[in-house]
Amino acid sequence: MMRRVPHPLVVILAQGTQNPLHSGLPSGLLVSSFNTITLSPTPYVSFNLKVPSSTYQSIQTSGGFVASAISNPHTARDFFLRKESVEYRTALRENVVDDGRSILRDGKGGIWWMECSFMDKESVEVGDHVVVIGKVMRAGLYGESRDQVLIYSEGKYRVAAHIDGEGHSQLLRKLHGASAAN
User: pTM (2 decimals)?
Assistant: First the structure.
């Protein structure tokens, strides 16, 4: 059922424990479970990932992570690769700014970024996953991108469509008619 619910695709990057296979680059992965918990008075976000995870170890060690929403399906594919692969290490070198900030390079499909401190005591392990909680410390945009954030739905990367004008009105009439019939 939940495969039909679209979720944003977000790259999570963390410095911390350096895997020798990554040549000093941060750990990173692609998640489709990124959420805001609250925006005010203090912004908090969450996502879940399967453990054990080298990225989770890096988050724990460094005490934080950077989340970046993306619009580029190639960047999404790069962060979905197995961490032991040569392709993954190449993807890290090509996609990540190597200055300790753990953000995506310009032109790699980043829409926005959030630098977060890891809320260890609030994060919780559930089965073979952990729900990671982060306190947003800083946030910004990648350039002037007007691209849509990639979403994951029904096993595929997608872009949300905007319905406006007559198409929107027809859809609303159908929805209201369906709810009136129920």
Answer: 0.80
First to last CA, the chain: 21
Q: Is the dihedral of CA 118, 121, 124, 125 positive or negative?
A: positive
Q: What are phi and psi of 51, to 5 degrees?
A: -110, 150
Contact assessment for residue 14 and residue 64, using Cβ atoms and an 8 Å cutoff: yes
> Would you call the peptide bond into 6 cis, given omega within 30 degrees of 0 as the criterion?
no
Cβ–Cβ < 8 Å for 76, 157: yes
In which residue are the tokens 């729900």 written? 131
Can you point out the beta strands (E) in 97-165?
A: 110-118, 124-126, 129-141, 150-153, 156-159
Q: Which residues pair with 157 in a beta bridge?
A: 152
CA 127 to CA 124: how far, in whole Å?
A: 10
Please report, in tens digits, the pLDDT of each residue of the chain (182 residues total). Answer: 777 788 889 999 888 655 555 556 778 888 999 999 998 899 999 999 999 988 899 899 889 999 999 888 888 877 776 666 666 667 666 666 655 566 777 767 788 889 999 999 999 999 999 999 999 999 988 876 677 888 888 887 788 766 555 555 565 565 655 444 44
C-alpha 24: how far from chain center: 22
Distances (CA, A) of 164 to 134, 153, 167: 35, 22, 6
